[in-house]
Amino acid sequence: MMRTLDLETEFKRLEDLITGADSFFLAGHLNPDGDTIGSMLAIGSVLKRLGKKVRLFSQDPVPENLRFLPHANTIHSRVPKGKFDAAILLECSTPARGGALEPVLRRCGKVVNIDHHKTSEFYGDINIVEPHSSSTAEIVYRLFYNMNVNMTRREATCLYTAIVTDTGRFHFPATTPRTLEIASRLLETGFKFSRINDLLYATKACESLKILGRALESLELKAGGKLAVLTLKASDFKEFEARSEHSENVINFGMMPPGVKTAVMFREEEDRVSVTFRSRGHLDVSAVAKAFGGGGHRNASGCRMRGPLPQIREKVLSVLTRLLG
Ligand SMILES: [Mn+2]
C-alpha cells in the first residue's frame, strides 16, 4: 500500500518540520495510558533540548501510577491559547480521540499524526501510522534514531514505560524482536528499570487489593469451564471505600484458570452495571458488547447497561454460554 511505502518519506518530512518549526503543541488520547503519556514526555523533552517551545496537553489527567514519570507535571489539561507552528497528536485515530482539540488545531500550522492503531484516519499533514508497531513509543524511538538524538536517561525511562505498558510487559502478540531490541537500547542509557517495574507492577493501592480479593472470591466458572464470571457489587466498593478505577485490570484474572476462553466482569454502579469482556482466540467479544450498546476490540470490550444486577447478569450470561456452547 502507498501509505506504508511512504513511511520513510513521512519520517523525513517530520524531521524537516521539527528543524524548521519553533513551537509545538502535543496531545494524546482521552483516558491516557502509559504509551500516550510516555511518548509525549519523551518527544516533549527532546524538542525542548532542541530549543523549541513546547506545550503538552491531555484533556484527562495523567493516571496516578504514571505520575512518577519525569516532568509528568508539565502536562496541562487546559487547552492553551496562542498559535503553534505544529501540533503532534499521539495515538489519536481521529483528532476527536484527544478531546476538544479543534479550536487549538486551527491555530497550528501543521498537524502530525503519530499512531500504531490500524483505525487511524490519516487526518494529518504528516501521518506516521505503523499498525505493526507494538506501541507509539516504538515509532518515536525510530524518529529519534533517524534524527541521531542521544537520548537522556529520563527520556529512555519514558519510552521504556510506554513500551512495557503497551505490550503488557512484552506479553502481547504485537511484541517483536525489534521491540525487545529497542527496550535493550533504552536500558543501555542506565536508568533504574527495576525501580520503574516496581512502581508500575508491584505497587497497588490498598483499595485495589481489597477489591481484587472480593472479585476473586466471586469467581464462577460456567459453560464447562470456558467462561469465567466475576461480580462486584456496589456494597463491595462502599465497604472498602473504593472507586471504579480500583477495579481496573481485575478482569484479567478471570482469564487465568486453565481452559477459560472468555471472562466477563459485572460491576454494579449507582444506576447502571458496567460489563467488561475479555477473550482469547477467535471469539469476538466486541460483537457481544456491541449487542448491548458498547464496543471495543475483538479480545477486549465493554458496555454499560441500565437495570438491576441480577437481570443484567442473566441476560449477558445467556448470550455468552450460547456462544461458547
Ligand atoms: Mn499505544
Structure characteristics:
325 residues, alpha/beta, inorganic pyrophosphatase (n-terminal core), Diaminopimelate Epimerase, Chain A, domain 1, 2 domains, six-stranded parallel beta sheet, six-stranded mixed beta sheet, elongated, binds manganese (II) ion
SSE order and pairing:
Layout: H1 2-5, H2 7-20, E1 23-27, H3 34-49, E2 53-57, E3 75-76, E4 84-90, H4 102-105, E5 108-115, E6 126-129, H5 136-146, H6 153-166, H7 177-187, H8 193-201, H9 206-217, E7 220-222, E8 227-232, H10 234-239, E9 262-268, E10 272-279, H11 285-291, E11 295-296, E12 300-306, H12 309-324
The chain binds manganese (II) ion.
Task: Give a description of the structure.
The chain is an alpha/beta fold and 325 residues long. The chain folds into two domains: 2-201, inorganic pyrophosphatase (n-terminal core), CATH 3.90.1640; 206-324, Diaminopimelate Epimerase, Chain A, domain 1 (Roll). The protein is built from twelve helices and twelve strands. The protein has helices at residues 2-5, 7-20, 34-49, 102-105, 136-146, 153-166, 177-187, 193-201, 206-217, 234-239, 285-291, 309-324, and strands at residues 23-27, 53-57, 75-76, 84-90, 108-115, 126-129, 220-222, 227-232, 262-268, 272-279, 295-296, 300-306. The strands form two sheets. A six-stranded parallel β-sheet has the order 3-2-1-4-5-6. A six-stranded mixed β-sheet has the order 7-8-9-10-12-11, sandwiched between helices. Strand 8, helix 10 (234-239) and strand 9 (262-268) form a beta-alpha-beta unit. It starts with a helix and ends with a helix. The mean pLDDT is 94. It binds manganese (II) ion. The site of manganese (II) ion has 6 residues, from loops.
